[in-house]
Amino acid sequence: MSKLHKTVVVIPKSANSSFPKTPPKPQTVPPPPPPAAETAVDPTSVTNLILKTNPEILPQKLPGLTQWTPDLVHTILKRLWNHGPKALQFFKILDSHHTYTHSATAFDYGIDIAARMRDYKTLWALVVRMRARKLGPGPKTFAIIIERYVASGKADKAVDVFLSMHKHGCPQDLNSFNTLLDVLCKAKRAEMAYNLFKMFRGKFRADMVSYNIVANGFCLIKRTPKALEILKQMVERGLDPNVMTYNIILKGFFRAGQTKEAWEFFLQMKRRKCEIDVVTYTTMVHGFGVAGEVERSRKLFDEMVGAGVLPSVATYNALIQVLCKKDNVENAILVFDEMLWKGYVPNVTTYNLVIRGLCHVGNMDRAVEYMDRLKDDECEPNVQTYNLLIRYYCDDGEIEKGLELFEKMSSGHCLPNLDTYNILISAMFVRKKSDDLVVAGKLLLEMIDRGFLPRRFTFNRVLNGLLLTGNQGFAREILRLQSRFGRLPHQFRL
DNA sequence: TTAGGGTTAG
């Protein structure tokens, strides 16, 4: 079997070294089909194979492994999300496949992953390649690129990218303009967004969406007066605020701690017969609850059905969070049961809230029970589920159990993210054990290997820890790596 | 991926 497989793989090797510039030609001799047992490979086993296989031999193993389809490729790219280098290698290998060609979506994923690793060279190479294949880059591609530049503190660069979109064959329009504003606002750069808004609102014919985005931007930085000013401008321009506008302002009041104003605003919405929807109520339930007014929160929750607005899962989640934080987990669980009783399907957020609530009162065993229930509910624990359990185990001094969960992640389809590594590395310092520091060192190496950039602080902390516990050899290894950083591709530069 | 509501630690 393995011998047969080998002969299959040798054939495409010659064409492997560079990207073929021409579309694949129909072949007179069809390539031998992959062995029957491997034709229907599931995403999990392919992902695990990619993770386990040495990068040097992956290019030989992968192409003939299965019948590649866009869906399979997308699923695998998503699963490899927290292992950027592997994800990009996978993308590149399939990009030079004989018969399979990447979809626009796959390119967008690849671009997103490269951008997240701050590997801008690869990012732009993919953009060029995408265009050569007439798959884009499209508005979504630019939304991704802009968001990543903003997220890494390069808002000016993001604006440049927006302004040069048309040079890549993707003309700017109102949608892409609104996306730019939104990305800036979500990154707390409302002032910058507002300046652009003023500069270009005529050119792109700013609409209600643009105004809502900017108003929300100011709410996000707790500048509700400015948000109200935007609302006023909007009305002056003859644009009628809609329920989203009001919900934005309402949430803004809560965010800024102005519960009194929020209540007044809500009453005014009612008086003026504005539309009040499930989002309005969810905002109210959550807002009053986290402000400590649990009774009021509950009352609003009970009131909404009478007002003809049915709670959503998010509304239940809001109430559950409030009860966990300001009341009692047991009451939160009663609400959880009630929602099941009424036929709602809790999502992973619901479970995470209950799990966190239980962890918080030290009931780790029951928390784990809910994690198992989550799996039974054809819902999957996500990286947040794992992270919060790992965090509480470590805080509890049960570091082994935390590490056990971590191991589980690496073998399953929920790869650890940057937070996971930071949580665990920090935990390795509490017992002041030499062995723990060695684990911290290994975690540090592993996270770098997976495309995460440790902060300088983390680096030095691990280094000092190793030196203080007599692990000079390992410390030197890490030091060598640190000094190599200057020469590594710039995504690794400190 | 054009706007609003639930997870995050302190």
Describe this entry's structure for a reader.
Keywords: Repeat. InterPro entries: PPR_rpt, TPR-like_helical_dom_sf. The chain is mostly helical and 494 residues long. The chain folds into four domains: 1-15 and 34-136, no CATH class; 137-242, Tetratricopeptide repeat domain (Serine Threonine Protein Phosphatase 5, Tetratricopeptide repeat, Alpha Horseshoe); 347-420, Tetratricopeptide repeat domain (Serine Threonine Protein Phosphatase 5, Tetratricopeptide repeat), CATH 1.25.40; 428-494. The protein contains 27 helices and no strands. It has helices spanning 2-10, 43-52, 58-61, 70-79, 84-95, 104-116, 120-132, 139-151, 155-163, 174-186, 190-204, 208-220, 224-236, 243-255, 259-271, 278-290, 294-306, 313-326, 329-341, 348-360, 364-376, 383-395, 399-411, 418-427, 434-449, 456-468, 472-484. The model is unreliable at 1-31, 33-38 and 486-494 (pLDDT under 50). The chain binds one DNA strand of 10 nucleotides through helix 8, helix 10, helix 12, helix 14 and helix 16.
